[in-house]
Recover the amino acids of this structure.
């Protein structure tokens, strides 16, 4: 029933909580009604969701925890492990906020031109991925991945000389 102002009491209560910045879930808890009801009221009144637009399923504390971990540079998988959800949940959370993925630990920065040429030269000479890795100071899977990304086939040249072969090359 409308109060003296002509505004239904639920609208007044809703509005007072909304302007305080409470999310739909928090308003629902305060008014002892369902979150979908609050969401429907909010949309009918033409208001945007508080906190993070459309983020009614996540409370402020949880969101702040995820942001803190994200700001530390943790990967989606590490954040998910820390907060007890799946990596896909964190990925969706991050994309919803237009946050780029954090650079994964072990993800390499671009190679210098010298290192790139050195590796290509070794591939052309027939060196194995393991040998190139040892000479480059990285792991064999890193070299295999590097080679595959560039579409290079395993070495096709004569290969390195065996240690016992001391004949000069022509």
């Amino acid at each position: 029933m409308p109060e003296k102002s002509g505004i239904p009491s639920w609208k007044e209560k809703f509005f007072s909580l909304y302007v305080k910045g409470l999310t739909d879930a928090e308003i629902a808890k305060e008014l002892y009604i369902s979150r979908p009801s609050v969401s429907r009221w909010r949309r009918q009144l033409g208001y945007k969701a508080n906190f993070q637009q459309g983020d009614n399923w996540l409370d402020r504390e949880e969101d702040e925890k995820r942001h803190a971990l994200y700001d530390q540079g943790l990967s989606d998988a590490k954040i998910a492990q820390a907060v007890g959800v799946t990596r896909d949940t964190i990925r969706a959370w991050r994309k919803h906020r237009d946050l780029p993925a954090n650079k994964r630990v072990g993800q390499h920065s671009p190679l210098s031109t010298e290192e790139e040429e050195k590796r290509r030269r070794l591939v052309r000479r027939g060196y194995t991925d393991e040998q190139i890795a040892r000479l480059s100071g990285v792991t064999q899977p890193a070299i295999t991945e590097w080679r595959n990304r560039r579409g290079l086939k395993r070495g096709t040249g004569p290969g390195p000389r065996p240690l016992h072969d001391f004949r000069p090359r022509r």
About this structure: The chain has three domains: 9-45, 60-96, 108-160. The longest helix spans residues 60-71.
